[in-house]
Amino acid sequence: MRENGSPVQRRSGARNMLWICLFGFLLLLVIAGFFILSRIQEERDQQAEELQQMQEELQAVKTEKVLLEQLVMQKETEMNQLVAGVVSEHGVQDYRAYLTFDDGPCENTLKVMDILDEYEIKATFFVNGVESELAKEVYCRIVEDGHVLANHTYSHVYKSLYESWDNFYDEIKKLESCVQSQTGYEVEPIVRFPGGSNCGKEAIMKEIKAHLDELGYRYFDWNVSGEDAIYSHVPARDIYRNVVKYVDGKNIAVILLHTTNKTDETVQVLPDIIDYLKQEGYSFHTLDEEDAPTYVVFDQNYK
């Protein structure tokens, strides 16, 4: 049987078929590349849109942060102006003393409350977290005697406290839980920063203050200190002299003292401090009062 076409014709047909297949393959590559490039462009457009949205949200957060910081600064200014001089409804200067005690609970906290009971004076106690029968007794008595149970963070450890807002807030909530689980009582939303509100890095402290204000917490420093915890067992006479010195010229005195196992002398001299303040015309108040000097910053002169 004779084959169709000459060898030359068969080779030419094979070449044509090869070119057709190659062209078809290239066409498929072009079409696939087009769809792939289209998909990549769509993903890029979507990513660009998401990035733009994130940038807008970040800018909104930054704006809110600035507004909160401005609000805190405004309140600090207002309260510091209030501290400079308070006038009563009758135009007479009103001398107010806020006795505050940091770092309990301990035996000396109980002894301080015994003295306060004798004078019928209420005070504010900024406590740390301790889980024991003594701690439970102290926490309960602060509340049941009519004093203010306030937050001085659970651990009082500067290094971890001031690393971030999250760390600080965890300590605040841990102290609240510690007290509530042992006593059933709640800690007032009143805070004192260990070391004072200027203790940590400026940016982190601004963030902490802004968040506290946003969550309804009030924070208090002091403008008078007995300097009774600068080392162990500061002499009673020095504590007394410090209070007298720093209270001079102040209508509002937010007085910092401590109740620890190393401040026996604070207990010893407390009656003398109270007698002096009463003699100078001060009335005694607690920091949960509505007109308490919330944002008073500690006096740099005593450091």
Q: What's the end-to-end separation, in Å?
A: 118 Å
| H and E order | HEHEHEHHEHEEHEHE
Largest sheet composition:
6 strands, parallel
- The residue-averaged pLDDT reads 87
Write structural notes for this entry:
By secondary structure, the protein is α/β, with parallel strands linked by helices. It has eight helices and eight strands. It has helices at 7-84, 107-119, 133-144, 158-161, 165-183, 202-215, 236-247, 264-279; strands at residues 96-104, 124-127, 148-151, 190-191, 218-219, 224-225, 252-258, 283-285. It is rod-shaped and about 130 Å long. The N and C termini lie far apart (118 Å). Mean pLDDT is 87; it is low at 299-303.
SSE inventory with pairings:
Elements: H1 7-84, E1 96-104, H2 107-119, E2 124-127, H3 133-144, E3 148-151, H4 158-161, H5 165-183, E4 190-191, H6 202-215, E5 218-219, E6 224-225, H7 236-247, E7 252-258, H8 264-279, E8 283-285
Parallel strand pairs: 1-2, 1-7, 1-8, 2-3, 4-5, 6-7
Helix pairs in contact: 1-6, 2-3, 2-8, 7-8
Output the keywords.
two-stranded parallel ribbon; 6-stranded parallel beta sheet; 303 residues; alpha/beta; disordered C terminus; 55% helix; single chain; rod-shaped
Gist?
This protein is α/β, with parallel strands linked by helices and 303 residues long. 55% of the residues lie in helices and 11% in strands. The strands form two sheets. Strands 1, 2, 3, 6, 7 and 8 form a six-stranded parallel sheet that branches. The chain has a two-stranded parallel ribbon with strand order 4-5.
